[in-house]
Design a protein that fits this description.
Elements: E1 3-8, H1 11-26, E2 32-37, H2 44-57, E3 61-68, H3 79-82, H4 88-103, E4 108-109, E5 112-113, H5 136-148, H6 163-170, H7 176-187, H8 189-195, H9 197-213
Parallel strand pairs: 1-2, 1-3, 3-4, 3-5
Length: 214
């Protein structure tokens, strides 16, 4: 087994994977880490095409994904049935199970971020302290959110209260591609792993599958 390919929601996730996750896996002997932007289309058709193309073209890689549950397109397998379940974590888990059934490949590991990438930024204040435009009032509000959610993955997915919506409201001129990966890098991957159990488990699953496939 040679490496892990990530199908990413967008440019920010690509930057995060290449600036943070790459070095996490290199430290564990997994050296070929590549991230691919879905190009602005996160429909299941695009997702399916990207995943299956890489699985067919490469026989020594694991393919995974990093896409948001927030505004996940309804054409994903099991989406309508999952909506009937109580709790977003259960809904995501059900959709991931259906993705596994649909792709049906031993080198595929589906992952949907609860609720979206921006939730991972609320693990620490280090990154926010470096963002231009964060005055004392903004920093105080951000600190309040960080302290309210020991697990920032649980910040809800409301249209006005989702992590990305909070950041755009609190930080003047907040730009996801410009600031997102930078804030995560400043906070440190260790803080994300410590506070975000679903994200942390995903990394463990990838590492285990890689080692079991060698």
């Amino acid at each position: 087994m040679r490496g892990i390919y990530f199908i990413a929601e967008g440019a920010t996730e690509v930057q995060f994977i290449e600036s943070s996750l790459r070095y996490y896996f290199i430290a564990r002997g997994i050296y070929d880490i590549r991230a691919f932007d879905m190009g602005g289309s996160n429909s299941f058709g695009s997702y399916y095409k990207d995943v299956t193309t890489f699985l067919k073209q490469e026989n020594d890689i694991i393919v995974t994904s990093m896409i948001d549950f927030f505004r996940l397109p309804s054409d994903f397998p099991g989406y309508e049935e999952a909506k009937k379940l109580n709790g977003n974590e259960k809904q995501i888990a059900a959709i991931e199970v259906e993705l596994n059934h649909t792709i049906n490949h031993h080198r595929f590991v589906p992952y949907i971020q609860l609720h979206e990438f921006e939730g991972l930024l609320f693990t620490d204040m280090k990154g926010f302290n470096q963002v231009p435009g964060c005055n004392d009032q903004a920093l105080a509000e951000l600190k309040g959110i960080v302290e309210t959610y020991p697990n920032p993955e649980l910040i809800n997915n409301g249209p006005e209260t989702a992590p990305s919506k909070r950041l755009k409201r609190i930080i003047p001129g907040y730009d996801k591609p410009l600031f997102g990966a930078y804030i995560a890098l400043e906070n440190g991957l260790d803080s994300i792993i410590k506070k975000c159990p679903r994200f942390s488990n995903w990394l463990k699953v990838l590492e285990t599958k890689f080692k079991d496939s060698v």
